[in-house]
Amino acid sequence: MSAVVVEPSAAQFEQPSLPQAEPCVVVIFGATGDLTRRKLMPALCRLTNQGCLEKVRILGVGRSDMTDDAFQAYVHEALKDSDKLERLNEEEWREFSQRLHYMSGELDDDKTYREVAARIEEFASEGASKNLLFYLATPPSLFSTIVKRLGAAGLNNEDDDHWSRIIVEKPFGRDLESAKALNATIREVFKEKQVYRIDHYLGKDTVQNILVFRFGNSMFEPIWNRNYVDYVEITAAESVGVGSRASYYEEAGALRDMVANHLLQLLTLTAMEPPVAFDADSVREEKVQVLRSIRRMKPEQVIERTVRAQYGPGEIDGEKVKGYKEEEGIKPDSTTETYAAVEFHISNWRWSGVPFYVRTGKSLGRHLTEIAVHLKRTPQALFARTPVDEIEPNVIALRIQPNEGITVTFGAKRPGLEMCTTTVHMDFCYQREFGVEPPDAYEMLLLDVMRGDATLFIRGDEAEEQWRLITPIEEAWASEGVRDLPIYAAGSDGPAEADDLPAGNGHHWRSLNESHAGCD
Ligand code: BG6
């Protein structure tokens, strides 16, 4: 991600010139998998159509036996399902399809990697670049195997005229120990600067805008600390259920699936100190410092500061939906949590005493990802002797999705002869302001890797720090066992037990419907 400043012209916003990927061959392991079909191919196709991938070839590697032509037909079908590519025309498809190649092979067989190397040589003899980008879009159980075999085939090597990079998908391990082991395997083969660990939330425009909002304006940063902030709420509510990912989700649960990565990333961006520069080393160093400032929870703290729950049957948007245990592929006695809430404390100068509450859940009443920064009350109730409504403390809400925007609430005098006050909203709405949809996160992230920019990727020590915080929670939950896992009705705001978490400190969650979606 490069820091391009866009100044508004009178009527519209001028777009900066399009960034170009460095020439390369993108090798996707797991070429017929769900991630490739739903996310990678649409993103690569759109980048191609926008003219950002002029000298890029794509080699899919998978177990199915297919010719290049059959793979192209398979990708063409997949693109039809993408809502971002509804208007893909013949010419655009031709331009993209001619970059698509395929080879089949077992990913635990060295022969496959020798064949990948031979295919890359063949491309080079036809004039393609020797720069290599490997994408691990496979089940995580294959990550180490692929990394070792890439090393054995010499595909990790770089020299003056070509680079080799690797993108590792989430989940990056399932606890601290496995994340360390995976890092160790990767480091035996690749240098840290060659490794790009993905958290797709960092590719979202609104997530990057957290930094612009905080560090590109002088008005918010002076109040962004324990002197003015009472507490921070980070919510990632989904109205969808587990869908077709039962076997993965039964093993993961909401804490591993969302809190261990996306929510901790939102927390670090909200809480970090200003970096000295907007580059990979400076930004990631500050993010790691935030994680290091959060103390690991002791088992008794886990009981006090966390809530887990599972959705039962209910109604979403007027439609009846199943409970988690009734979903296809889920054990009828499953105790996997589909909702998790955690209270984190950052022990540093800026945030000491300010709780950061995070919550996430599936099958909730509304799809909403939001960071709400609650400011302290004013020190004096100046209007207390007049007939007033209570002035609510200010809230700065950064709406990550949907209806992307930022809302600031503040008190105002109602028009009239009496001194009556009320809470009003000041809204910034992306769609209204810029008139365009933000690009998909994978477009941004893929392009960044092809340009060698790791700012929006997770550093090795950062991945381990995330697990250092999550693993004690998982362990305490496991040793406590599940007696009465709270059940919340699908379509609700989550379990009632979650309200006790902030209530213990005199705080409260915003209702999912409270978010002032001025962009609706
Ligand atoms: C993924 C999780 O990482 O993020 C999913 O595995 C979740 O369970 C998804 O639904 C949410 O991503 P987004 O971009 O739709 O908010």
Assembly level: single chain
Label the structural class.
Answer: alpha/beta
Report strand order across the widest sheet: 16-15-14-13-7-12-11-8-17
Biggest sheet overview: 9 strands, mixed
| Proportion in β-strands | 15-25%
> What ligand molecules are bound, each kind once?
6-O-phosphono-beta-D-glucopyranose
Low-confidence stretches: none
Give the overall pLDDT as a whole number: 93
Strand segment tally: 17
| Count of discrete alpha- or pi-helical segments spanning 4 or more residues | 14
Task: Please explain how this structure is put together.
By secondary structure, this protein is of the alpha/beta class. The protein has helices spanning 34-49, 68-80, 90-97, 110-125, 143-152, 176-189, 205-215, 246-271, 280-292, 299-305, 430-434, 441-450, 460-480, 497-503, and strands spanning 24-29, 56-62, 100-104, 132-136, 164-168, 195-197, 229-237, 306-312, 314-316, 319-321, 339-345, 355-361, 368-375, 395-401, 405-413, 421-429, 487-489. The strands form three sheets. It has a nine-stranded mixed beta sheet, sandwiched between helices. A six-stranded parallel beta sheet has the order 3-2-1-4-5-6. A hairpin with a 3-residue loop joins strand 14 (395-401) and strand 15. Helix 8 packs across helix 13 (460-480). The chain is globular, with a radius of gyration of 24 Å. The two termini are 29 Å apart. 43% of the residues are buried. The mean pLDDT is 93. The structure holds 6-O-phosphono-beta-D-glucopyranose. Residues 170, 238, 257 line the site of 6-O-phosphono-beta-D-glucopyranose (BG6).
